[in-house]
Amino acid sequence: MNKHMQDSYLKRIERVLAYLSDHLDEDLDLDKLADVACFSRCHFHRIYHGLMNETVMQSVRRLRMHRAAGDLIRTSSEITAIAKRAGYGSVEAFSRAFKSSYGAAPASYRSIRQDIPVVSIPTMELKKMFDVEIKSIDPMKLACVDHHGDYMQVGKAFEKAGIWAAKNGLLNQTAKSIGIYYDDPASVETEKLRSAAGFVVDKDYSDEEYGISTRSVGGGRHAVLIHKGPYAELGKAYQWFFGAWLSESGEETAEAPCFECYLNDPKTTVPSDLVTEIYMPLK
Questions:
Q1: Residue 159 pLDDT > 70, yes or no?
Q2: Which of 12, 13, 137, 282 has an alpha carbon within 20 to 30 A of 248's alpha carbon?
Q3: Residue 119: inside a domain, yes or no?
Q4: What CATH number is given to the structural domain containing 85?
Q5: Could you tell me if 224 and 277 lie in one domain?
Q6: What is the tens place of the pLDDT at every residue in 66-81?
Q7: Per the domain annotation, does 65 fall within a domain?
């Protein structure tokens, strides 16, 4: 274990937590928080989520609720004002969220003067969960279709790219299927998620009918995680990869998106046998 690097990551996350606590009444920008932590803006949200076991916005909601609980017990402020300070537009929405977290509606909580829960930093589970290897790879050209929205629906883009590849005689046993994922689904609204699906090619392609464009992916050092199982379970691999593994490794992420390479065909492989390589770009 690289204890020095792990401590460094935790201290940088601690700076973010301190900043959040001091600026809870403000609109909190992920890029600003990445700068506070001196992490890559491209990957800050994944690192934070991996280390904290919650997203930045979940932390903000948790901290605001913690503060609201203190306001309910220690002040005589109107619940309407407390709800607004916690970021809610109505008492009803605040009451539902508060009861979900604290087990009682705000008025009841205030009347029975419950103790304020202790806010603690989740510990990391550092055990080895996946095989990871660091590789230097050459850049690859990818003929791809862009996808916007839920990553679980990216199959639509793969189908479109596959039809185009078959049409152009590119879909064979050696064809390498790649997915690029630009955003952390735990930190970005579903409808704003950006990804691309396609195949490795040896020259540039463009086809407006199919929405095909060519871009470069990879190049340089990458940490490669091997995941076996359903695509729906890849999220836990990302969380461990960007949390426990990265902080232990002594590595820093580069300003490039992660991508996945699919080693077998989901149409002919049972989900439990699907093998996916997740590539994390490194400096």
A1: yes
A2: 137
A3: no
A4: 1.10.10.60
A5: yes
A6: 888 888 887 889 999 9
A7: yes
